[in-house]
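sanity check this:
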Amino acid sequence: MASSLLGQRTIEDFAKSKGSKRDDLSTKDRAIFELSVKTFRELMEHQEDIEAGLRGAKHLPEVMLIGLVSAYDAFLAKLLRVVFSRHQELILTSEKNIKFSELLEFDSIEAARSALIDREIESVLRESHQEHFNWMEKKFKVSLKELPAFSKFVELCERRNLLTHTGGIVSTQYVTNCKKFSVYTRGANVGDRLTVNAVYYREAVNIICEIGIKLCYVLWRKFVKDERERADSVLNEFCYDLITQRNYSTAEAILSFSTAWVEIDRCRRTMIVNQANAIRLQDRSTEAIKLLDREDWSAVSEEFRISVAAIHGDVDEVIDLMKKIGSDGRPSAEEYRSWPVFQSMRANSKFSEAYAAVFGEPLILPKPADVTTSIPLDSPESTGGRKLR
């Protein structure tokens, strides 16, 4: 779209600067300009540049997909390096080795160990993405290929290989590998050309996010056991941020996976509330309520109970609990405004009136009036005594 608009503007500016408008031929929808035959070559040069730009723009999503998978590979390399640095016994069982003549070139054992880690990681990354998971399952003794998004991840990586090596033309290897992992290939056959559109790329970003975060979470809990509670908390915060960014499906997928691992009841219940809210915000309220109803919420804090009531859509219960919690409890005034769990409540007039009664201010604060000043932007008064850089 940007390339098309730029091309249109280029031709428009050229016509206005080199030609004269023909009012007798122009309409309210289209302006006609008359150009001298001497400008024809220059016009064709502009046209060729525009067409080249449009052709390049069509390949941009494909280039971005290749870059997306490369970003995941870089992330995986960093993650593996963290694991090996914390658990050096894993690298001692590596099939990679360093010759004695090479060992003499290192300043310390630590430098040699670091080089061995790099060799192991580089060796793994040369293999296919499916083989990465086979290697990790064997090396780390964890189950990873059962991740719900794994089959989509396989297709994504196979498509990236096609774009890199065949220009997107489906190969026998693509079909074979997809069938091996029960991947839905959307009816693609050998010889077909696969492309990348906005919908596919958006889904690819979410798949990479889901796979990368789950992988990081599993390895964090396994290899740093005294930080499991922190890992749970960080993951829940990450999913909360996804919900605030309206990426409900990815938040749901990650939370549905992680709740089975969490040991601290409060954190587990918080994840369930966030997961149910992510489901509700995808217009699946019945499913969200069923998820909540699996738990007993009668003995939990009012903070949980008001969140559960909000997901149920019970505005009267939410208002009763809000008044009971008061202005000094939690949720706070700002949390009622910002928590995604109250998103639908904020549009309810009864909720707004109760909020104003409890906190003595309106739920929706008026926007501050624009302030006009004549102070120069680089003056000490405008920068607190500091010059802008």
User: Anything to note?
Assistant: DSSP finds 17 helices and two strands in the chain.
